[in-house]
Amino acid sequence: MAEIPRAQDQLFDGRSSARDKYARLVVGRAGLGALLKHEAVVLCSQHVPGALGFALRKLLYPALLGACGRNVVFGQNVVLRHPHKIRIGDNVVVDDNCLVDAKGDSNQGITIGSGVFIGRNTILSCKNGDIEIEDGANIGFNCELFSASRVRVGKDTLIAAYCYLIGGDHDAKDPSAPVLSQSRSSAGVSVGAGAKILDGVTIGDGAVVGAGAVVRETVPPRAIAVGVPARIVGTRDEVASR
Q1: What is the DSSP string of 4-18?
Q2: β-pairing, 158-159 with 169-170?
Q3: What is the pLDDT of residues 30-87, one digit of tens each?
Q4: Could you tell me which residues come within 8 angstroms of residue 188 by beta carbon, excluding any fewer than 6 positions away?
Q5: CA distance 115 to 137
Q6: 0.85 exceeded by the pTM?
Q7: How far apart, in whole angstroms, are the C-alpha atoms of residue 13 and residue 11?
């Protein structure tokens, strides 16, 4: 299991200047040139409303990204962190107020396939982990995908609003210490379709997870899981045969 780094350790490191801390946490690359390029793009386009804002972000954001396909739409106030580790396919929509954060020292970052829609206010957040969203996936508004190792959302997966995929967890083995001060680790999450998925869980292809379910154990392909904690109540094939 990978250990999850703490942002506070970098943010309050007394050995680094404020500029170096900002570059490490946001830009992801050292050097004044990378910092100035990032700030120029953000200043000129991130908050600009209307059609002009869409046009500016479509023109300028790809200059920061590791890769960007055709017809990618970035909404207003879309925030990119460590953008050189973000790769986006064709015909993608990243709606207003999304955070796409590929932060990490040794990770690959975030890969978004073609035909993907990411709803407004959604957070894709890495802490030395990777996030892969495959072609045709649709992520509703106000969702969070957090990865400290690997989170994968399969092809054509639909994730409803307010869903959380948490690829990381707190260790609470020591009852005498606060949970926040104990170590954190991540086993990763792989999702074919789902709702609230805890660390180390795989949701099989074609499976269905009911609204509000909390999934603590692996759900087999094409199974139907509901409840808190989620339990298997049948399969899609059984439903289709009725």
Answers
A1: PPPHHHHHT-TTS-H
A2: unpaired
A3: 889 999 999 999 999 999 999 999 999 999 999 999 999 999 999 999 999 999 999 9
A4: 129, 147, 149, 150, 151, 152, 167, 199, 200
A5: 7
A6: no
A7: 6
